[in-house]
């Protein structure tokens, strides 16, 4: 019986993308063929995000579009499978009330069983005793830069966040499993390993009873063949001296830390349930700058949180001036039903919130521009990611630029290099976020 063709839509964050790639890999191992087009596919899987209202609306819109295709005349689309965070937010009955064409809603805890569920769906009479699920990671993006998800769920209780109720408590992967995954993607050409989780600094607390991110990093540094290890999604309350020492001592660990602080006012940090204070964040900031020379810091802040008055907002602006972050993402608070913050009063009106967001991003633009100007004329090592259509222009990143969220280096008049190559570049121009580089020579073609 020939296996079916399927297509896959992966919405949401990089953690979802990793889940999607593992599921695709597992299905391919069972002989199912991935199709980039919905057209001609027997089934479609939609991995969703639901932690904000806007994400839920996007997920429902996408699922409804698939429903229309499935019920259209001569459609070959037989089945629609929904998973990810919206499968936690709505159970099967609630999802089918919204989109009757949906065939299967799979909770996150069952993601690894999807090849078996698909087999049962298409071959209900088949004896599936002894059916083995095989781990396999399909890389949906150029293999030189890969996300490695080291845990799922979160034990922190930030009052604005739905993730703990959607993805459950912290579940770390074992160090051995992570090393196997990294060795596998290294063989596929990975040069950069981006470690992700809800809170990477809490890694291991559930499985080993203590923080194990340092041990994991040390073990990863013993794996040969890739060059950059990047730590994303840390939590200021869980950064240890040991971790800073390891980042400083291990040359393959990028001198780059993603450190979401969310706010700086003690009043707001308390209301957010961030388990840290202004004083602790400032002390940590100083320690990181001192202990890791040249470190590049990324953060995330939220404006418009209930109770944030002009005073608290000004405190945040002053802090970002005095303690600048080279990289910063900012969001407006979104009141999500099911979170503690949803019930909090003193809501900030949308207009004020968006004005504050604008101010933070204007400030960050000038901070980022000044940071970039310091690189003018410098020689830097660049990882090539992609090319412009005419292939005469390449896009790459410094080790201080994370994929997808930070600026990049644009290199004109380039030839003879490929994604995944490292290039020595002279910075000849700087923008607010991006840099312009001129190729000096190819430092290494692995
Ligand atoms: S650390 Fe806070 S914001 Fe991040 S996933 Fe956990 S609860 Fe949500």
The CATH class of the largest domain is identified as Alpha Beta
Distance between the termini: 42 Å
What fraction, in percent, of the residue positions are helical? Answer: 25-40%
Say which molecules are bound, naming each kind only once.
iron/sulfur cluster
CATH superfamily of the largest domain: tm_1862 like domain
Number of strands: 18
Shape estimate: globular
- pLDDT averaged over residues: 95
**Uncertain runs:** 442-446
Number of domains: 3
Report the C-alpha radius of gyration, rounded.
23 Å
Counted by DSSP, the helix tally is 15
Structural class: alpha/beta
The CATH topology of the largest domain comes to pyruvate-formate lyase- activating enzyme
Instruction: List the strand order in the largest sheet.
Output: 6-9-10-11-12-13
Outline the biggest β-sheet.
6 strands, parallel
What fraction strand? 15-25%
CATH architecture of the largest domain: Alpha-Beta Horseshoe
């Amino acid at each position: 019986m020939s296996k079916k063709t399927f297509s896959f839509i992966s919405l949401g964050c990089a953690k979802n993308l990793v889940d999607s790639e593992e599921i695709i890999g597992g299905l391919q191992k069972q002989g199912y063929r991935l199709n980039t087009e919905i057209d001609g596919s027997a089934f479609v899987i939609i991995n969703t995000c639901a932690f904000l209202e806007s994400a839920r609306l996007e997920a429902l819109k996408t699922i409804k579009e698939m429903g229309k295709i499935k019920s259209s005349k001569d459609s070959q689309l037989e089945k629609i499978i929904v998973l990810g965070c919206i499968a936690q937010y709505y159970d099967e009955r609630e999802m089918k009330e919204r989109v009757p064409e949906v065939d299967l809603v799979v909770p996150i805890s069952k993601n690894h069983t999807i090849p078996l569920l698909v087999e049962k769906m298409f071959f209900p009479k088949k004896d599936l005793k002894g059916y083995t699920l095989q781990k396999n990671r399909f890389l949906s993006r150029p293999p030189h830069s890969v996300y490695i998800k080291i845990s799922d769920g979160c034990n922190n209780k930030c009052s604005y966040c739905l993730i703990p109720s959607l993805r459950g408590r912290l579940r770390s992967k074992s160090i051995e499993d992570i090393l196997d995954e990294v060795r596998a993607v290294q063989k596929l050409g990975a040069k950069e390993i981006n470690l992700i989780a809800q809170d990477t600094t809490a890694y291991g607390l559930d499985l080993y009873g203590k923080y194990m991110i340092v041990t994991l990093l040390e073990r990863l540094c013993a794996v040969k063949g890739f060059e950059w290890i990047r730590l994303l999604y840390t939590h200021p309350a869980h950064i240890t001296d040991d971790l800073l020492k390891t980042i400083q001592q291990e040359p393959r660990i990028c001198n780059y830390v993603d450190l979401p602080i969310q706010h700086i006012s003690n009043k707001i940090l308390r209301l957010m349930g961030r388990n840290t204070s202004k004083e602790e964040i400032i002390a940590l900031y100083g320690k990181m700058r001192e202990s890791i020379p040249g470190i590049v810091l990324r953060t995330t802040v939220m404006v418009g949180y209930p109770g944030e008055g002009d005073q608290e907002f000004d405190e945040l602006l002053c802090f970002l001036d005095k303690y600048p972050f080279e990289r910063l993402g900012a969001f407006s608070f979104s009141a999500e039903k099911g979170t503690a913050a949803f019930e909090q009063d003193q809501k900030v009106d949308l207009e004020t919130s968006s004005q504050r967001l604008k101010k933070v991003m204007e400030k960050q633009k000038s901070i980022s521009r000044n940071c970039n100007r310091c690189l003018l004329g410098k020689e830097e090592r660049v990882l090539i990611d992609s090319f412009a259509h005419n292939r005469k222009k390449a896009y790459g990143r410094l080790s201080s630029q994370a994929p997808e969220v930070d600026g990049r280096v644009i290199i004109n008049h380039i030839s003879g290099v490929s994604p995944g190559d490292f290039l020595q570049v002279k910075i000849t121009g700087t923008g607010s976020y991006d840099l312009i580089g001129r190729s000096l020579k190819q430092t290494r073609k692995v």
